[in-house]
């Protein structure tokens, strides 16, 4: 019996925009598998050195890609990461870049315990739409979509939209 084809979805954007919140709920509603790259790296210690400036380990991108490649080939994955140009383009059928207003993001990151340069740099990353531009360069522009992620209403609207897209994609490919 042939397995049902399911899409791979990338959720990306500056830390704090709501990728994890959306991704986990999306997995519940669609039955797709949620993968948090930060958690995966931590579990497998997929690191290559330590960044003194930001006080965090540096991701070993090659090992992350190797670790996931087989699963991604099977399909049905929701990947959550605050970067997007480390993954093979062929992995994803759609890319969502979540966007949050600066003041809102500042508050969220502050309550996460970010301060000083780390807080400033992340808010600036959002102001300069760094991840959106990274996504537009790394993937075909037609598959890159921005999602506003400021309020619970935004979250619900995004959920409904992505669930609907997933159902349509699955219908079209089976
Ligand atoms: P990320 O995974 O992008 O770092 P998160 O899912 O952990 O972000 O969310 C960061 C915080 O913001 C968390 O406290 C939940 C809250 N949040 C997420 N999406 C939201 C939304 N649409 N409206 C209001 N708050 C939201």
Computed structural class: alpha/beta
Low-pLDDT stretches? none
Shape: globular
The CATH class designation is: Alpha Beta
Radius of gyration: 16 Å
β-strand number = 7
What name does CATH use for the topology?
Answer: Rossmann fold
CATH homologous superfamily name?
A: P-loop containing nucleotide triphosphate hydrolases
How does the major sheet shape up?
Answer: 5 strands, parallel
Q: Roughly what percent helix?
A: 40-55%
Gap between N and C termini, in Å? 13 Å
User: In CATH terms, what is the architecture?
Assistant: 3-Layer(aba) Sandwich
Domain module count: 1
Order of helices and strands: EHEHEEHEEHHHEH
Average of pLDDT: 97
* Beta-strand share of residues: 15-25%
Quaternary organisation: single chain
Structure summary:
The protein has helices at 19-30, 37-44, 61-74, 102-111, 116-127, 130-138, 152-172, and strands at residues 9-12, 33-36, 47-51, 56-59, 77-81, 94-99, 144-148.
Give a description of the structure.
- There is one protein chain.
- The protein has 174 residues and is of the alpha/beta class.
- The protein has one domain: P-loop containing nucleotide triphosphate hydrolases (Rossmann fold).
- Helices cover 49% and strands 19% of the residues.
- It has seven helices and seven strands, in the order E-H-E-H-E-E-H-E-E-H-H-H-E-H.
- A five-stranded parallel β-sheet has the order 2-5-1-6-7, with helices on both faces. A two-stranded antiparallel sheet has the order 3-4.
- The structure holds 2'-deoxyadenosine-5'-diphosphate.
- It is found in: Cytoplasm; Nucleus, Nucleoplasm; Nucleus, Cajal body.
- InterPro entries: Adenyl_kinase_AK6 (IPR020618), P-loop_NTPase (IPR027417).
- One of its GO terms (molecular function) is ATP hydrolysis activity.
- This is Adenylate kinase isoenzyme 6.
